[in-house]
Amino acid sequence: MSEPTAPHVPALSATRRQALRHHLMSEIGRPVRRPRRMLVLAPAAGVLTAVVAAGVVAQPWASDSAPVVVAVAPGEPGGATLLLNRMADAAVDRPGPSSGEGEYVYIRSRGAFAEFGDGPARLQPVRERELWIPRYEPGEGLLREPRFDGPLAEVIPRRSRLDDVTPNAVLVDLPTDPDALLAQLYQEREQRGRGNSRDGAAFTAIGDVLRESLMPPATSAALYRAAAKIPGVEVVRGVTDAAGRRGIAVGHTELDRRDEWIFDERTYEYLGERSYLVADTPDGPAGTVLGTTAVLQRAVVSTLGERPRR
Fold first, then answer.
1. Which residues pair with 105 in a beta bridge?
2. Could you tell me the CA-to-CA distances from 204 to 26, 201, 211, 222, 280 in Å, in that order?
3. CA–CA gap between residue 222 and residue 162 (Å, rounded)
4. What's this model's pTM, rounded to 2 decimal places?
5. C-alpha distance from residue 143 to each of 89, 136, 138, 155, 300 (Å)
6. Could you tell me what percent of the chain has a pLDDT over 70?
7. Which of 59, 75, 158, 290 qualifies as a cystine partner to 125, CB 3.0-4.6 A?
């Protein structure tokens, strides 16, 4: 579903749209064996380059610190369907942005991701990121985030203009029927023929849309109801996002890794994500954190680079 009364947006094939979503963040933080290096957060869907910096926001974990390990709480498979359908009902009643409010979607977030190499994965310092994407038509976007080219003291604030960015209206152009939406995600997984299982790929694709887009209420509801139909989803309680906010999570486990979407337990507002190992592996013991994020603000603004009130 595109945003209400939005102008016509050039259509993309299902496969192309899925590829763009996965460019957002689905491959970052994946346990891969490589020389030790930091995993850089990928830009928004449809953005093909990112040379950006904005300074370090916080450093709860130094790059030479021990791996961050959390308790692996038992999931509740029986509660996921009920929770996600409650979230869908709440999303339908939540007002969405009107078509005339502005031309850009602004999203401010915070995150930290692991580096891999010899020995356990180690979480990098938390970094803040600001993103501007066009609402309706492909065009210029803007990304501001830190990039570590040397010691932390040498990080220089920078920003990067992004060309031909896929608009928000295309990112949220999804079926509002949950069965049709899930079938589309499964089909796109089969067309790619690689990567996660079809259930894991569908969970990842939904998470990609939740993370960095501004969705109409009906789209949010459809995503939650589709997620409720994915085998293996479970509820995890007492989860904390990258901003230290506690919430309730919907998780999915595949290949010794659990990915979680974190929500406010009272309002069901999306807070962020967390990924960690659930078993001992060469990348670390069970509980080793591979990624943590927090969405701090979403808004519609009139001009590129404009910041809403905090």
1. 133, 300
2. 6, 5, 10, 15, 23
3. 30
4. 0.78
5. 33, 18, 15, 16, 15
6. 73
7. 59
